[in-house]
Automatic annotation (TrEMBL):
Source domain of life: Bacteria
Cofactors, names only: Zn(2+)
Entry protein name: Zn-dependent protease
InterPro entries: Mito/Outer_Membr_Metalloprot (IPR051156), Peptidase_M48 (IPR001915), TPR-like_helical_dom_sf (IPR011990)
Peptidase M48 domain residues: 67-250
Signal peptide residue numbers: none
GO cellular component: membrane
Biological processes per GO annotation: proteolysis involved in protein catabolic process
GO molecular function, one term: metal ion binding
Alphabetically ordered keywords of this record: Hydrolase, Metal-binding, Metalloprotease, Protease, Zinc
Amino acid sequence: MKIELQTSRQKLLSFIKRSITLLAHFGLAAILVLAPSMNVAQAQSQSVPIIRDAEIEQLLYDYTTPIFKAAGIKNKIQIIIVNDQSFNAFVDGQRMFVNIGALMQAETPNEIIGVIAHETGHLANGHQQRLREQIKRAQTMAVIGMLLGIGAGVAGATTGNSAAAGAGGGIAAGSNEIAMRTLLNYQRSEEAAADRAAVNYLNATGQSTKGMLITFERFSSALALSGAKVDPYRVSHPLPRERIAALETLAKQSPYYDKKDSPELQLRHDMARAKIAAYTDHFTELRRMFKDNPRGLPARYGEAILAVESGSPKNAVEKVKDLIKDEPKNPYFLELLGDALIKANDPAGAANAYKRSAELDPRGSSLLRVSYGHALLLTNDPKNVPLAITEIRAGIAKEPEFAAGYGYLALAYGRSGQVALADLATADMHYYSGNRMQARIFATRAQQKLARGSAEWLRAQDILNTTQLKK
């Protein structure tokens, strides 16, 4: 009996551990249901594979601005491009994440704008905050059920009633299932609300709702082709066919349903798709996208990028210059020319291309300013170092969390003999890359050489304070 009771206790301890683990994962999974293939917590710790590109960031900015205005969102929402091939987008309350797979698969701007409008519905209605409250409530339900089950299990094990002990485990496991289904039901209602909000935003901005339906049709076809049998009560989103049925009537009532994207916007969208396909080595997909116009600007853009990445430098430069003949004021063609000239070992020419690109860029992207500064450093001309520092610092000033920019700034300060500032920039680079230990090491080194109480000394102290190791 003693051995049997010990075995029952061991089972109970094992069950408790499993339940706690389930709760931990349950809470995390509930947070991540907006993005089944991505992890918001990972994104917050900068472990999501992020893509930075001035052209695509500008395009997404132009897509989101009127939608955010229609939704009454006044806070600055950061748009982040995720290097993931799946068709997905999600939000975390302060940021919107868009997968490159969504951009590449969406054949029209309207399709991706519909996705953005849906995610904006989550942001505008505070779904993330309410989701956290629902998670806490669901966890409470699961914990209470688990404790009731454990109590029944202990009583059964103590009295030697194996049936009661087994029932206790069933109560606890059942409470987890009920909590999960309750939470997922809540989320399905929030998804439906975001869909309705998206239609309102698209109508308010005079844009078609057709793209949303096309996207849901894509999901429905993918689900049908997979042959998967889905329990509708164990998913966080309404099934695609249900969403189509719910939205079709509402969407087709829009006076803008048949409105098409402007040719200018469609061209920009195609250029972004070509760029993504080329940089991700999807040569076959690039050809398929533009098979009807193989010598059009997007197709040639993709080919030029492929040449810069893997072709001969001389040929790449010629291909990019051919593009610039068509659009001499396109800042992103000039940026690509800078990339090609770097590969061709012409940093001075690259610096001029990046400079012109930064001057023409409508948003004044920090990426282009930093690229200009980096090219100046690559000339190995000491006279260019002060200007390189100025340009890189200007880029960082606009985007203070630009980790790679601090790396170039550290190099520039090192070239100019400003060792303390080089150490501080290196500390910032590690800090914004999430490497707390290295950030502390370089902040300590910088502080030892900086004037106590100066702005730079205080910045080093901030890094030390925020990276202090907990006992």
